[in-house]
């Protein structure tokens, strides 16, 4: 209740017509406007064409977290920020296919906004989640759903929030706008062409360990 009142006050201060939105909508709008500048789209040139994905800015000097399968065997990687600026990226570190995480680095003249991490250990089935990604090249796309299942054996968070090709490496967010997972894959009967509501994300606690072990690499 208190959080909803705070979000309404924020919208009023920004001068938006608050009566046009429900409290929950205002909260989602505020989270998106805060988090979208921390998300990038990724185009990697590979041997058989291009691989597209999404990334989260985790350090203001241009360190970016994404999925390793997005940039595997890439010859050149281009990162585009929310304001349309493009940068060439280099690979800092990456994990194997099972963990599917990678760190990229771009060089910018000004500090970038960064994501905030939550704790995936606190994730519960049924909680609301948001996803921001670059599906089919439509950068900055927001979807929402719930945590559908937690796969403790494979260390994956299952969600019905729409995750499509191009979303890999993007954030799965909780209701406070904190990253609780990194979008990784979808399951469907048409060879991963489209989304049917079964998507998977790598728990953010795994990503935090990966980042910490590579934090001082350039």
Q: How many helices in DSSP terms? A: 4
Please tell me the overall pLDDT.
89
Give the spatial strand order of the biggest sheet.
Answer: 1-2-3-6-5-4
Question: Could you give a short account of the major beta sheet?
Answer: 6 strands, antiparallel, barrel
Number of strands: 12
Q: What is the H level of CATH, i.e. the homologous superfamily of the largest domain?
A: Trypsin-like serine proteases
Cα gyration radius (Å): 17 Å
Low-confidence stretches: none
Strand content: 35-45%
Helix-strand topology string: HHEEEHEEEEEEEEEH
CATH architectural group of the largest domain: Beta Barrel
The level-1 CATH class of the largest domain = Mainly Beta
